[in-house]
Design a protein that fits this description.
By secondary structure, this protein is an alpha+beta fold. It has a single domain, classed as Electron Transport, Fmn-binding Protein, Chain A (Pnp Oxidase, Chain A, Roll), CATH 2.30.110.10. The protein is 19% helix and 38% strand. The chain is built from four helices and twelve strands; from the N terminus they run H-H-E-E-E-E-E-H-E-H-E-E-E-E-E-E. The strands form three sheets. It has a seven-stranded antiparallel sheet, with helices on both faces. Strand 11 and strand 12 form a beta hairpin. Helix 1 runs antiparallel to helix 2. The longest helix is centred in the first third of the chain and has 12 residues. The chain is globular, with a radius of gyration of 16 Å.
């Protein structure tokens, strides 16, 4: 299964270059060892809405509450994020693999068609939130830092909603996974 994340997809394209092919392949392999929560990033409004599947999502700050999302600038979502200045991070639950695939482009759906077959709610920034996502984090685009093939989106958090009693959808070693032993706690924070 191809990685859902635009970052790893870009690494695949770089691997074809003979000068840096070996280093890119080693880097791509190393990134496959990095387990991550699967998120769908939504942006835009009306027929201009789109989105993408990502694992390159992280908190940046508690004061003010801020998030980071990495986005390939070759993605159709890049221009929409810049224009609408907002995005919603929908952290997917274990039962939402089909939504991850849809926003990763599997099945050929693009733009607003990716939203079909699921329930969405518009939040403060205008971006859509998946009604039963594990966690929803609505962000106003504060800054987009362009580096290499990607943009680092810094989002100021405007709203948060969490679904209790669900496990996250994870991505590790080229496949979607879920926590199989959620009751086994190694440490507690």
């Amino acid at each position: 299964m191809a990685p859902p994340d635009a970052f790893l997809a870009a690494a695949s394209a770089v691997a074809a270059s003979p000068e840096i092919g070996h280093e890119a392949a080693a880097f791509k392999n190393a990134m496959r060892h990095l387990a991550g929560a699967v998120s769908v990033i939504t942006t835009g409004q009306g027929s201009d809405r789109t989105g993408f599947t990502a694992t390159s999502v992280s908190s940046l700050s508690m004061d003010p509450p801020s998030m980071i999302v990495c986005l390939n600038r070759a993605s159709s979502s890049w221009g929409v994020v810049r224009e609408h200045r907002g995005f919603c991070i929908n952290v997917l639950a274990h039962d939402q693999l089909h939504i991850a695939d849809r926003f990763a482009g599997r099945g050929g759906a693009t733009g607003a068609a990716r939203y079909e077959g699921a329930s969405w709610q518009q939040l403060e920034t205008g971006a859509l939130a998946l009604a039963n996502a594990l966690t929803v984090i609505d962000c106003e685009l504060e800054e987009a830092i362009e580096r290499h093939s990607h943009a680092i989106l810094i989002g100021h958090v405007r709203a948060v909603r969490t679904r209790e009693q669900a496990e996250p959808l994870l991505y590790w070693h080229g496949a979607y996974r879920h926590i199989s032993n959620v009751d086994r706690v190694l440490t507690s924070a």
